[in-house]
Specification:
four-stranded antiparallel sheet, 29% strand
Length: 230
Amino acid sequence: MVRLDKYLSDNAHLTRKTAKHALHRGDVTVDGVVVKKGDVKISTQEVILDGVVISTLGSIYVMLHKPEGYVCSTVDDDGISVLALIDEPWSDKLHIAGRLDKDTTGLVLLTDDGQWSHKVTSPNSDCSKEYIVTVNEPLTHDLVEIFANGIALNNEIKLTKPAKLTIINEYQASLVISEGKYHQVKRMFAAVGNHVTALHRESVGGLALGNKLKQGEWIRLTNKQQLSLV
């Protein structure tokens, strides 16, 4: 059971303050009866706000286009959290499923579903991730095979899983990996004597940014979209 004011803020896109205002105005009914007190407990009752039935939102899945300078952390200890870009009452429930560095842009997934995020981020899930990588030394075509065979990272015993490198131009490539080691993309290029100067995550699983979102924008995923990842 949950308090009525919290139920409204969680499921009707209201803040606690605006939920209380709606209650005081008499805009809310519970099983057909006007209720003005926020501490009424809700379980299976029908809640109506301004004539609209308010149903539970269920688990939340968000795709966001991260700008440079934002941190993938719920604590603003090293800059502004990406959560600051989601101005919704339920944003404080979310955690980040697969982080990006502060200087990296691109697709970030957020959710309140721990099992789903584990499937997305687990090294055993084989959830592919595509990055657009810019480097400061010219790329050579022999790197395609080197990345496909796996790369020995500094302080790592096992090679990385096979990765698909597609050279776009002399200083830029697409890289698809299926694991998420710490700073993996930057470390892979460092292992072949190159330095990443810019990094952008274009896709995760079956989800791609494309032209859907500008930097700083986000959308909630449909069931079909979130299932495409797992």
